[in-house]
What does this fold into?
Amino acid sequence: MPLLEARNLSKSYGADALVVDDVSFSIAKGATLGLVGESGSGKSTIARMVLGLIEPTSGEVTFDGESITKASTRAMRALRRRVQVVFQDPFAALNPRMKIADIVAEPLRIHRACPRSEIRPRTAELLRSVGLDESALQRFPHEFSGGQRQRINIARALALRPELLVLDEPVSALDVSVGAQIVNLLRDLQREHQLTYLFISHSMPLVRYLSTDIAVLYRGRLVEYGTAAEICESPRETYTRTLLAATPEIVLT
Amino acid sequence: MSFSGWGLVYRSQWNREKTEGAFISIVDSQGNSRYETLNYLQMHYFLRQQLKTQPLAALGLCLIGTFLLAGAFAPWISPSNPSAIDLPHRLAAPSAMHWLGADELGRDIFSRLIYGARLSLTVAFSVVACSLVLGTTIGGIAGLYGGVLDMMLNVLVMNAFLSLPGILLAISFVAFLGPGLINLILALSIGGWVGYARLVRAQVLAVREREFVEAARALGASDLRIFFRHILPNIVQPLIVQSAIGMAGAVLAEATLSFLGLGVPPPTPSWGAMLNDARSHLFDAPHLVIFPALAVMFCVLAFNFIGDALRDYLDPRTRMSVGL
It folds into this structure.
């Protein structure tokens, strides 16, 4: 059984603004689905529906057999421990008025995931696992660079030991070398914690690097969906070919 | 490189000794803004510099400081009992005995002004506190939940209150409940909360769309946690400004109600009541009118100066040049 399944997901704002149109996909445990598409193709809307932050107009998302779309408040709370998110903009996703210690500890406090005395060592450990040291705890987000902030976001997302991580363009706001470090960190963390990823990006090479499966989104519709090898080696759709062609490739022989 | 604004960082109580007391934001020549944290030494220097560029704020702070000290230590400062009647000296002009003269019952005006500061400031702080709590609650609910609730609160309740002049509401409320300090504060708060509610609602609407609020929601944070931990700390700056200016309004409103005889009942000295008592002696003993009026004026002016200066510090986009 797949860990996450989206069936015929649609979202429209008003009569003629169909943002997501009949999208279905599934992610097996431990796999990574790369969701690619240009900006405005509905990627982030899908991420928010998977997270239960917005209601789909029709269709359903199930996580481990349980419906996210129809979950009660109580069930949703339990689901939130298992599904976490890293947002695109590392500058906007951290509350500027909170210390890093409080930001990273917040999920633990919300879900009372560990005793009070454990919170401090746990947050320090989380920060170490994303490559930051303890001195960061007493500082505020504005004192960090984009890459460091994204690490803090990841630490917060990992605090509850989730099974599924939704990565909504986690590196698109960072410059290439920092982005690469974050991608490698995500890859290592996936191995270490057996995480399942829904990786959203507009960059084909990134998706190709991380994903086991790829879904190509164009104007709210899934135009192509298959394993990473299939899509990259023999793309059927012209749009996928354009996306692939947009990346320069150096053949090393 | 230019300085663009500053703010106090929200701090937890248990690490006051940390240096992260304040930050300033700096815009460099490329238009990038960044924050820099100041330690306390730098902060004091910085505040001194700011006060130099904003002399009116310094003046306002001095005036309010004086009023606060006068109010707090009234029994020790005032030269005589503010209620002591001394008929032989009724309507006495300012002299060594009565520094600012005596009123129609021979009571010392200077002492009465000092005690009046106590009342005015008590009322000002209480009214702003009550309005702030009420306004934040109602505005916060309207902004956070939106939809029908927002429609009810904003369109019906807030607009209804806004359409009536606050002082009229206060007058009818006091007339209904009878005069007294608590009733006065309640009456003025009832007229005053709407402004704060409007402000909070608008600010909440802006902040709740930001990604960190969405992130908190994805973590499973309750609405209360989102409001108090994530939204409120990010909207305190305009609230502080509004409160400072609200104090000025409250002082004036208290004086107005006391003038109309709807304030705290005599013999408690109040600036407004002193003005009312002085009405019939406007021409034969003008000092009865001038000194309480000056007290009200300086108090209102001081709060307005502080409010304006705070707004300029906290929101550099609306900065106006210092002018008188």
Observations:
- DSSP finds eleven helices and three strands in chain B.
- The longest strand of chain B covers residues 2-8.
- The CA atoms of residues 15 and 21 of chain B lie 10 Å apart.
